[in-house]
Amino acid sequence: MTIEMLWEQDDPDEVLRNRFGFADTASVADWVTAAVERHWGVRVGPPERVVISDGNALAWIRSADQRLLLKWSVVPDRFPRLALAAELTARLGAQGLPVSAPVTTLAGGVQVADAGVSMGLQRVIEGAHLDVEDADQVRAAGATLARLHDALRSSPVSDLQHEVLSPPAPLTAQISGWLASESSTLSPRARDVFRQLLDRMPPELPPVQIVHGDYRAANILCAGTEVVGVLDFEELRRDHRIVELARSAVMLGTLFRDWGPVGVSVREQFLDGYRAVHAMTNEELRWWPVLVCWFSLALVPPGDDPNGWGPAATEQLEHAAAQLRG
Q1: Domains of the chain and CATH, by start
Q2: pLDDT digits 0-9 by tens, 178-201
């Protein structure tokens, strides 16, 4: 069994002890196999692999006829969000959408909270992470996001949604606040150009709804030109569809480390795939270049920029200004 960190540089054995309370790899293996049998009635072998991210962990396990994934968290503040994510993912899976739907427990639930741990069990989806160099995959990813948005918008509203998901601040207020913040890395000229773009935006957009929250290559599995799995709904939020579409277009190529930007053509392919499924309003289309610009600029790191976010953001700023002038 291998134990590894998803993105942190900490020693995984120390993290197992200090964050999760396991003395060694044998104890985590025993806990995983016992938890799956107790709550799901499935006998599995020891984990093949355990990956840790912050206060969350994933264990790949195998039963007699299938590969499974146990995901658990030891961060109590996240438990209501995890329960909501499992509830919504189960609904999406029942509609035939390509999500990693949770396996139902013996008690009929989809997420278990037990002894300070929240856990869910899924079936492993075989596929490779989205390749942003493959135009067909990129368009399929856009189309899949549109279908997810349609399904999430029509999903029944539960009390848990109101508890977990707060509505966002008005979009112009969010961006203006970011522009005024000390953390902004914009040059004076870039700030002026971007403010001029923002001043020309329509005040109204379609209502906010639940969105995925982290739709990018790390969470999109493909087989050939088909999207076969959308993973990790734990960052779901309420937002405008166009905001998620733009954020995802900017971050589409990011995996786990050494994130880098994608080119304009990739973002346009992604948008084309989305629009093939869901028609967008004129207001949304006017916001698109400005939102892509905002997220591009927000990802420029202070100091060293080894992955080229700065030049990509400058290119997008000029592209957005040219589009609106035209």
Answers
A1: 2-124 (3.30.200.20), 129-325 (3.90.1200.10)
A2: 888 865 567 787 888 888 888 889
